[in-house]
Amino acid sequence: MAAKTRFDCVCVGLSTVDVLALLDQPLREDEKVPARTVLVDGGGPAGTAACAAAACGLRTAVFSFIGRDLWTRFILQDFRRFNVSTRFVRAVPAMATPVSLIAVNSRNASRTILWNGQGAGSRRAGLPALLRQGLLDTAALHCDGHLMDLSVRLAREARRRGILTSYDCGSARPGWEKLAALSDIFIASHKFARRFGRPIPRAILALRRRFGFRVAVTAGEKGFYYYDEFRGRVELVRQRRLAALDTTGCGDVFHGAFLARYLKVRDFAAALRFAQAAAGAKTRALGGRAGIIPLTARRQTC
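The chain above was modelled as a monomer; its predicted structure follows.
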């Protein structure tokens, strides 16, 4: 990592409040269902990735839009609990903070999610002001694609400055190709890969040929696929079976843990394997960030 930078990683995108209910049966329409427990937790792809990276010892900051409402203090305090800098978080008076309602089935860790982004992923920000404030005083830029226009402009400037750029591509949002073309690391979900209408290995090869980046696709309980630069082929690394309680935030934790390991060793496969272990450990706790806490004990291995 570049010691001269203020941050090791800046994460750009969505931060939310997650309200989770752990149920002993599937959620059905027009019924009252008792919850074993209810948890209010921080969430969002960029926000949770920043917390996971910070839990592994990175100096991390997040850029997100949130509302100036009853959730503002909760979100800011939760970031500070993980030592994530909030200097770039924008609390907008006329906006409601994005909230997700998540019903978790304790029998199989499946989730039903209701959420409203409140326009947090489509707001615009002035790039010159952010640069003056030091948003790119970092070794790595991580984008989740929710603030696509800003992410593309930041990634272009990051490339000019020689800053590592990582893209969490959960879905094919408008403009994803522009951000992909400016990314060094591209880790997509299996849902994104399916849009190609071909098996994941073939989708990875197509992405690699088109963009030339280091590429992987997460496939949930199956594991992850990645392009092995040395063997010149796609490999599958299977996920160890775990007694999962809740998979909320697993992908976000994967990205944060990956960056922590990759920035240290610059070994793509090793960083992916570490991220897989971190995401697997998260499944044992309810909530995307609640499961990050044990990672603090892993800082020596990050």
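Residues 146 and 258 are 20 Å apart (CA to CA).
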